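Why predict the complex rather than its parts? Because the way molecules touch one another can change local conformation, and only a joint prediction can capture that. The input here totals 621 residues.
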Amino acid sequence: MSDPILTLEGITLSFGGLRALNEVSFDMPEGGITTVIGPNGAGKTSLFNTISGFYRPQAGRVLFRGKDISRLHPPKRAKLGLARTFQNIALFRGMTVIDNIKLGAHSHLQTGLLSALVYFGRARREELELREKIESKIIDFLEIDHIRNLPVASLSYGLQKRVELARALAIGPEILLLDEPVAGMNREEKEDMARFILDLNQEWQMTILMVEHDMEMVMDISDKVVVLNFGEVIAQGKAAEVKENPEVLKAYLGSGDVADMRRRLGAENASGAG
Amino acid sequence: MRIADAVSSYSDDEAIFRTRTQRVWMGILLACLLAFPFVVSPYLLFLGCLIGIAVISATGLNILVGLTGQISLGQGAFMGVGAYTSVWLANQFALSLAVTLPLAGLLTALVGVIVGLPSLRVKGLYLAIATMAASVILHFVFVHWESVTAGNLGLNLQHAKLFGMELDSDFKLYFVIIPLALIAVTGARNLLRTRIGRAFIAVRDRDISAEVLGVNLLRYKLLSFGLSSFYAGCAGALWAYFFKVITPESFPLEVSIFYLAAIIVGGMGTILGPILGAAFMTLVPEMLKVLTLLLEPIIANAQVHLAPMKGVVFGILIVGFLLFEPHGLAEIWRKIQRFFRLWPFKT
Ligand SMILES: Nc1ncnc2c1ncn2[C@@H]1O[C@H](COP(=O)(O)OP(=O)(O)OP(=O)(O)O)[C@@H](O)[C@H]1O
Ligand SMILES: [Mg+2]
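Output of the joint prediction:
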């Protein structure tokens, strides 16, 4: 972990009168797992959308390896290596699993229209190479060989989340943004996903930014935790420090739901609704 | 029962025809297409050519509507652009179809890209209206740009040549139209297994996440409009060579609706769908015509009395098909295939 790979500087984002993000600033260390937590509606997904370029903030900058990418279109950011999954699964329902994953590699492929129409030369070569690569690296790793030719709509929720991760990996990410990767999963699926995330971080040396409600997982695997509340960063630091921070406790208490807070901060039967 | 060959490598898995059986069937189909004009009546040959032209245009429209999810009511007018362009070029410069056809396609593609510009802002019904407006404007141009289109009088194709040969019979045109239709369909099929086809489907299924995953919406929507119009322009040019006369009334809005119906009935977003749909939409009205003729001896003046009913029966047939199988004829075909593949183990 050295220089920050991604830096947010004073991001402010409003929807009409609603301020979803207010002066949000933090760094992501390269090679680390950074997790954003916060109550529902705190602005976590909005923050992700700002980083991917889908929302344009009114103020602030996003720096990628020190370079300002605030004005870059979403497809260009994907090409730079910003990959993400979505809180509400956003797979392409008309495609098979393998085609969904292949789509992730879109910006790295060169096939032009004419070559695609004749499917000869580059188009064919590129497709076969891509297939090899996806099969040997991604499908193998995520253990989804058995579903590769199925339409995504026929898959269970847990598997769909896994295919979404596979598609993000096909982008060849420098940073992987995961919006609630284990929400709605059963225990076993959660453990699998946590293992994949750890492997990606440790063996693939991938930098990860994650939103997650499952506190057990957050505390277990995060190098850094950032707490958002009503669009503001109220604490950031090592997981253990943040957990003890009185501001954070208050924010969760402030949501008025003590049981919810217990559930979220309790290390035992944490659940990830959202 | 058909025994599937084991798919041994990814390259086999990526191929279109995975098994030998499929290749054999494809060969039989090609042989039938080749033999067709030698054995059928002139009337059937005429229908065969019409279906070939319709397949090209429907395949093009399917790229736009079925794959990319951008609705268009401009296909008829685009065919008009292709028809006028090819006839004008042929008459003015005595050019061969080998030149007029691609030029007609390219010009129509350009017009299509311009007509597609609103798709960057609007979707669904609004886009349908925008493309309809464009087709009204094009119709206006066909009527009023008299120095090129000869207005309501229309144009006669005076120079229908290809490689020095006069294209003066349906028989000769069949051998131009059918290979082009095969190329058009193969092109669409190929496209579907590359990044471009995937990007089209991504735009259709979830345009916002497609963008975040690296697909440039602007580029792919316009590319789809351009490609689909290229197909329409080529189909329009062939139509002009086939009928030899074009007027603004050759390409009314109904033509656009005809093609939308064809891809819906056939099965949107599939390769087979537009082919089956084009054949269905061309053949059913003809079959109804034949039916009324057959009823003539039984019911006095059947032609006169039943003619108005044809439209109604046609409509009911379309609705019936959609209720019976909303995914179109292609899906029915798939089910039949599956039945025979598993038969007799499972029925
Ligand atoms: N496109 C939008 N238009 C208007 N308001 C929006 C939009 N997107 C988000 N918001 C609002 O911004 C605030 C933050 O929403 P956001 O989805 O970022 O929260 P979150 O932290 O991801 O919540 P959750 O834990 O429920 O996923 C909410 O009040 C939400 O209603
Ligand atoms: Mg959220």
